[in-house]
Write a structure and sequence with these properties.
Blueprint lengths: L8 E5 L19 E2 L2 E2 H11 L4 E6 L3 H8 L8 E6 L5 H13 L4 E6 L2 E2 L5 H13 L6 E6 L10 E4 L2 E3 L7 E12 L14 H10 L3 E5 L5 E2 L3 H10 L2
Parallel strand pairs: 1-4, 1-6, 4-5, 8-12
Antiparallel strand pairs: 2-3, 6-11, 7-13, 8-11, 9-10, 9-11
Length: 238
Amino acid sequence: MGKSDLLPCLLLAAGRGERMRPLTDNLPKPLLTIKNKSLLAWHLDALSRAGLQNVVINHAWLGNKIEATLRSGEEFGVRIEYSPEGTALETAGGIAKALPLLQPEDYFLVINGDVFSPNLPINKILEKVAILRSDPNIPMAHLLMVPNPVQNPEGDFFLENAQISSRDLGAGEKLTFSGIGLYHKDLFKDLAIGTPAKLAPLLRVAMEQNKVTGEKYVGPWHDVGTPQRLQELNAAYE
């Protein structure tokens, strides 16, 4: 088993899920279910199948329900530690706070808790770790990009020859960030733990240094953003 197989993974579950109300008034968004299985449980099963066992879940809104539901992770074949946030720290702030629990050697995997991506090829993603480690430029991130969904028609970043940029460099395709990526711990080294911080500004600085790589993923992926979308997904995967 290579080192990349032992990569720690952070599942981001601290969001309030405002657009999902009233469903999220009494339940954290990542515990909403598709085919009677929570979004977090789908991720945990996928991680377990890929041989990843060290999982950290951050939480804020109703986080006690996440801990009470998933407990130690034993039923999924993983070990879960929790990174509670009194108030949500945004994505980068949450990652920085969770880093001492993740204890990555260099790279670690991060997955948004509110995306639904059955058949996510985690083993394929892990194969990128060796490539990132052999790159003398030391990429700070490797992002999974997806075709632009109806709710984000303009996309987020440009992908060209496995490089990701916030600017169109010529022949790039503008795609949407899936919320799934590999990150180097040094991307967050200047953040004060416990302070809210957004991820996009950090990524844009790294992009300017050509330190963000990526790939296009065309398998099933859904941002479960509204009650209607959740209902549609449950109907589609019935």
